[in-house]
Amino acid sequence: MSPILNALFGWAATPAGVMVALSVPNTESLRNAGIVVICMILAIGVHEFAHAYAAHKLGDPTPEGQGRLTLNPIAHMDPIGTLALPFVLGLSANGMLFGWGKPVQHQPRNFTRKVSLRAGTAIVAFAGPLSNLLQAGVALLIAFGMAKLGYLDLRTAGFDHPLLVYYYLNLILFAFNLVPIHPLDGGKVLAWLLGPKYSHIDLFLERYGGMILIVLIFAPLALGVPSVLGYLISPVIDLGRYALAAVA
Residue 82 pLDDT more than 50? Predict the structure, then answer.
């Protein structure tokens, strides 16, 4: 298994970020880290824009007023989480790469009255992961086109190919962000699905979701226990592999 494939599946993530386990720094691992960072910047930029666009379409002017209604990834990069930290960790001996994007702020009270506050918040939340799924779909179409034109042999292409890194990274971000725990996007979608009747469950997850998420992320790394997140996300990755094999 290539170092970059290990990277993609040795991850942990924030609502719009990803941590990957890379090999000890050398020329090859730095190249792999660079590929992942660039792909992550692009994927996170579109993810955050999707949040902003959804809020804007629902009538909230906040994202546009803060300059977030743009596909320019610079507007969505966190100086520490998207640039400094991934760069420093990419050069470190432990080979860990971690990052996140700047969260998009929105005010549900500004949403159109055609949707409830809970539904509007869920729509804005779901827009981010949906954008990652769409990005993965675009990458798959490009891979299909390149394969048909003879520029890419998907049967022999390594997982360090930038297009494949971008494809799988977006699938991971899609699946991870829909895990129904706050502060992930899936937590807001779950709050809408539960409705007011089960708001106590949402309140519990809102209060303790961050701690639960930390345990789910780091317990497999620290204790060697099975990864619950891995079980939740692996079906999406498997479907992605089947789709890639189908267009090969």
Answer: yes
**CA 138 to mean position of chain CA atoms:** 16
- Active-site pick, 28, 48, 64, 206: 48
- pLDDT digit string, tens, across residues 22-43: 445 567 667 777 777 888 889 8
Q: What is the DSSP string of the chain?
A: --HHHHHHHS-B--TT--BEE-PSSSHHHHHHHHHHHHHHHHHHHHHHHHHHHHHHHTT--HHHHTT-SS--GGGGB-IIIIIIHHHHHHHSTT-EE---BPPPP--GGGS-TTS-HHHHHHHHHHHHHHHHHHHHHHHHHHHHHHHHTTS--TTT--TTSHHHHHHHHHHHHHHHHTSSSTTSHHHHHHHHHHTGGGHHHHHHHHHHHHHHHHHHHHHHHHH----HHHHHHHHHHHHHHHHHHHH-
Angle at 55 between CA 214 and CA 128, to 5 degrees: 40
Cα separation, 233 vs 222, whole angstroms: 20
pTM for this structure?
0.85
The phi, psi pair for 103, rounded to 5°, reads -60, 145
Please say if 48 is a catalytic residue: yes
7 versus 65: the higher-pLDDT residue is 65
The answer to whether the CB of 96 falls within 8 A of the CB of 17 is no
